[in-house]
Amino acid sequence: MREQKRRFFDVDPGLPTPTVIGADSVLVGDIRGTGQFIVYGEVHGDGEIAGSLNLAVSGVWNGYIRAERAIVAGKVTGGLTVQGKLQIGHTAVIRGKVSAGMIAIAKGAIIDGDLEVTSEAPLQEFEEKRGE
Questions:
Q1: pLDDT in tens, 32-46
Q2: pLDDT tens figures, 20-32
Q3: Helices (H), 1-90
Q4: 8 A C-beta contact, residue 53 and residue 33
Q5: 6/32: higher pLDDT
Q6: Measured over all CA atoms, what is the biggest interatomic distance in the chain, rounded to whole angstroms?
Q7: Distance (Å, rounded) from C-alpha 106 to C-alpha 104?
Q8: Tally of CA atoms within 13 A in the half-sphere of 61 that contains its CB
Q9: HSE on the CB side for 119, CA within 13 Å?
Q10: Among residues 78, 81, 103, 76, which one has the least CA distance to residue 92?
């Protein structure tokens, strides 16, 4: 039986209702929490997420982010540390250090800073084949 592929921004099954920051929202201050965070708007502050972060194409994060897992399609200024897997979409722009256990990066993504894989896993490159 084939495993169904997850879409880039599917909600993690088995997790509680996600925290969503809407496209027209601007949040100023640090964020700390557990579970899934989906950001379509703008955040000015650091993030400590015990769970997953999905930063949409329209999402902007100014500050340093720490998360267990992350998918980035928007803009990050400040850096990012992910314990597990980090997926970077072709529309992503990251300015600052990026560190993760595993990194998959789409052709077209921009990273202006150091890139570090903290496990033995190789850096994976892919071509985005689905629309935003």
A1: 999 999 999 999 999
A2: 999 999 999 999 9
A3: none
A4: no
A5: 32
A6: 46
A7: 7
A8: 33
A9: 15
A10: 76
How far apart, in whole angstroms, are the C-alpha atoms of residue 88 and residue 73?
6
DSSP state of 130: S
Residue 120 makes CB contacts below 8 A (sequence gap 6+) with none
Task: Answer whether 15's CB lies under 8 Å from 29's CB.
Answer: no
**10 Å Cβ neighbour count for 64?**
18
Burial class (CB in 10 A: 0-12, 13-18, 19+), 28: exposed
Is residue 107 within 8 A of residue 91, CB to CB? The reply is no
Altogether, the residues listed in the chain come to a count of 132
Query: Which residue type does 13 have?
Result: P
Structural tokens at position 86: 């980090």
